[in-house]
Structure formats: C-alpha cells, structure tokens
Design a protein that fits this description.
This protein starts with a strand and ends with a helix. The longest helix has 19 residues. Helix 1 crosses helix 2. The chain is built from two helices and two strands, in the order E-E-H-H. It has one domain. It is globular.
Length: 76
Amino acid sequence: MYFLPFVDYFSWWMWVYTLCEKSESLIKMHITRHYFPQQNGIVERRNSTIINMEMSLLKGRNITGVFYGEAVRHAM
C-alpha cells in the first residue's frame, strides 16, 4: 500500500491519495540523506508524521493492514 501526498505551499493544505501499486504514481524516487531536515522538505516531514500516526492507529487497536488506507486518511 502506498499513498501520494500533495501540498499547496500557499495555504499549506494537504491532499492524500491512496495507491494500490507504486507504478500508479508515475513519480521517480530520489534518495536523500537521513536526519538532514534541510534536505527534506515539508512533504517529507509530513510523510513521516502520517506514517507514524497510521502505525499508531493500527497497532493501538490491533487492526491488520487491510485498513491501511482508512488509517492514512484518518491521520490527515
């Protein structure tokens, strides 16, 4: 399961779309160094926040990954 976030840098509003396969996004991966926030932008920090919240929601209720998309949308 994957999700694709879009951020409007004017209003800081964020949209998230869940994807079944990585090929649906048509975006190439760029690797950055870990623990360097000056290289990672707003979206990278929000991605880590969404992933942490999603894992907390699923593990806190002992729910399987079937509800991954709903947990990501709820984390927004």
